[in-house]
Structure formats: C-alpha cells, structure tokens
Amino acid sequence: MAAMCWWSEPTPRLQASIRHSGETRRASRINIAIHDLPDDYSDKHSHIPANLNGRLTAGSGFVQALQGKVPPTRQSGRFVEKKLAMNIPYRPIALSFVALIFSGVFLARAQAGGGHFFAPVAGPVVREECGSCHLAFAASMLPSGSWKQMMGNLKNHFGDDASVDAATAEQITRYLSENAADTGGQRYGSKLIRGVSMQNPPLRITELPKWVREHHEVSANEWKRKDVGTKANCVACHTDAERGYYDEQ
Fold first, then answer.
1. Is 118:141 a contact under the CB 8 Å cutoff?
2. Closest among 136, 166, 132, 134 to 152, alpha carbons compared
3. Please, how many CA atoms are within 13 Å of residue 238, restricted to the half-sphere of its CB?
4. pLDDT tier at 94 (50, 70, 90 boundaries)?
5. Which residues pair with 117 in a beta bridge?
6. Residue 245 pairs with which residues in a beta bridge?
7. DSSP-derived secondary structure letter, 10
8. The whole model's pTM is what?
C-alpha cells in the first residue's frame, strides 16, 4: 500500500472503512441499551422493532437511524433508551389533575359556600322536633349562649309553646350547644356572629349584625309577601337552605 502523507485525502475505500467502523460502534452502544429487555417487550410496545433480543436486523428502526433515514434527534442510543423506559400516558394524567382541581373547588364550596354555607342539622331528634314547625336552622347560625337561653324557655318560643320532655330538651340543647357558631360550628358561623356580644347574644338570627347588613336591600313590602310572610322563612328566597346553602339571590 502506498504511503499516505498527513495532508493527503483518504481513499474511497478508507472512507468506507471509517464509516463502517463508526456505525458498528453506534450499533454496539444501542445493543448495550436494549440487550436486557425481555423477549416479549416488542409485543407490548408496537412502536418498538420486533427483534430486540440483542441483535439488529437490517430493517429495524435502529439500523435505519444509523443510515440517516429518520430525523437526527432519533439516532442516539440515549433517546432510544429513554423512549423505551418512559412510555408515560400524559393525557390521562393531565385530565386527572384537572378533575382534582375542580373537586377541590366544589369541596371548598361545600365546606364554606362562599361564606353562605351552614352545615344542616344532622341530629335526627333535633331535625324532627325543630323542623316540624319551621326550617331546622343550622346550629352554627347562633352562639351557644343563644341556644341555651332559647331552650330554657320553650313555653314562650317566640309566642308559641314548643315544650318537649326533659330528655328530648336536654338532647336538643346539647346538640345545638356543641355545634354552635362559637363552638363546634366556628368553621361556618364565626363570620356570622362577628361583633356579637357573647354576654348578651341575640335569640333571633335575623338580629345578627351580619344578617341585617346582607338583607338591608330587601324592602318591607317584600317581607310582607304571602310567599314570604316572615324573615325566618329562609326557603322563600334561598331554595337550597335545607341543604345548608344560603347563597345570595
């Protein structure tokens, strides 16, 4: 073979040999990346060539990559390894994330109702006794002092005799006191009783300062309508009041 100076151009045969050597090295790197894959891996992943048992076939996507028949970004062994290892379903994950956000929003509404949600009465005895004459108002709408004072004078319950036996009265009083706006129901009623004196709390929800402010635009004529009748008839305007929602109408 004739000597070749360092400035001489390599012969075509030598150029082909160099290319072949480079392709062999790249194929070896890809083989290293995939030789540990199970034989049935290609059955589960249709985008992967069928022959992945450590060999490269002439028609495989890897050889085509080496031959420049796919975009350059797909030719590296690192990309192939990442492609095989990270087949993540991004769309379902994104949809689940969105659903989680909306669930949080609705849960927050159920818990706070934008400041107009009060957990409805859960005690069956309280719901039956109080709800037989009017809406069973949520315990978190008044402080515990109001409920105790009210339950201590059921013979004169806003002009009516609402007397019950001692055991029932004690059960109702305990439920209302434990879930009042200043005790267990603070989560819902703390804003409603803001500014209220705990030493002399009102007996009527309609006398609470916040209630008065939020209903000051309601005219006297509207309160006198037959379908309303009284300020205590919340369901006349707040149709979901029984479920605890007193959103503005």
1. yes
2. 166
3. 20
4. confident
5. 245
6. 117
7. P
8. 0.55
Distance CA 199, CA 209 (A): 16
| Token representation of residue 216 | 């000051």
Q: Which two tokens stand for residue 9?
A: 């151009």
CB of 193 closer than 8 Å to CB of 143? yes
CA 8 to CA 62: how far, in whole Å? 34
Find the farthest-apart pair of alpha carbons in the chain and give their distance in angstroms, rounded: 125
In whole angstroms, what is the distance from residue 28 CA to residue 55 CA? 10
Which residues, at least 6 apart from 248, have a Cβ–Cβ distance to it below 8 Å? 116, 214
What phi and psi values does residue 160 have, to the nearest 5 degrees?
A: -120, 160
8 Å CB contact between 142 and 181: yes
pLDDT value for 66: 46
Residue 76 CA to residue 62 CA, distance in Å, equals 9
Distance CA 23, CA 167 (A): 92
Q: 């309280």: which residue's tokens?
A: 126
The two structure tokens encoding residue 154 = 């059921």
pLDDT class of 131 with cuts at 50, 70, 90:
very high
Q: Is 245 helix (H, G, I), strand (E, B) or coil?
A: strand
**101-122 confidence digits (pLDDT tens):** 755 544 544 444 446 899 999 9
Q: Which of 212, 205, 201, 184 is nearest to 146 (CA)?
A: 201
Which tens digits make up the pLDDT trace of 137-180? Answer: 999 999 999 999 999 999 999 999 999 999 999 999 999 999 99
Helix and strand numbers, DSSP H then E, in the chain: 11, 0
- Give pLDDT, residue 96: 74
Mean pLDDT score, 61-89: 50
Structure tokens of 130? Answer: 């109080």
